[in-house]
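Readers outside the structure-tokenisation community will struggle with the description of the input data as it stands. What matters is that the chain and its backbone geometry are given together, residue for residue. For illustration, here is how one protein appears when written out as sequence plus structure tokens:

…
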Amino acid sequence: MTFNNEAKNPFEAWRNITQFFLSTNKDLIRDEKYVTYNGVIVSTIEKPTTIVGKNHKFSQDYGDAYVKQVVEGSENDFIYTYHKRLFDYDSVNQIEYIVDELNRDKKSRRAVAITWQPKIDEKLEDVPCLQFVKCLNQNGALDMTVMFRSHDMFLGFYMNVIGLSGLMQSIADKLNLNVGKLTVISLSAHVYIKRDSDDMRKLLNNYWNG
């Protein structure tokens, strides 16, 4: 089962997902803490952007800081960061490799990066949700496809997409390409329904009335 979430921008993608998780779809598995989709959510975002929607829980300043953390790195007490895993994976700068590979061959299918490090992550309690990144040059535009092994679709999804949009722009600039589509594959997609249901309904109401 696949929920295909097609959207013009990150905010619309988040809105569609929030509506979906507040629905009574028979493939949503509910318990006291989570609502989890018993399938795969594929979000295709036509125009990735780092602009935060005005009615979202997070501010533009928060979004800008998250983009900076992903693209440039920043001080963080958390046990891992996506920047560290992508830009310094066992001393390998995978984003630099992606740029070099697409410069070498604009039709390359090898411009990929991963975050999972078996020797480290098999022993950690908190491990990366983002697992895989692939970039393609599609007729002069940079398309990116990413996969999450597990995904908080209310609080996590939106900032993840904002950060990845910033990463796309950074890579596209280095390759002198336009920014194309961002496709996000979310496995074990879930929301923390007890924690977030009130905010989900309130923010959707703000969206429709904003």
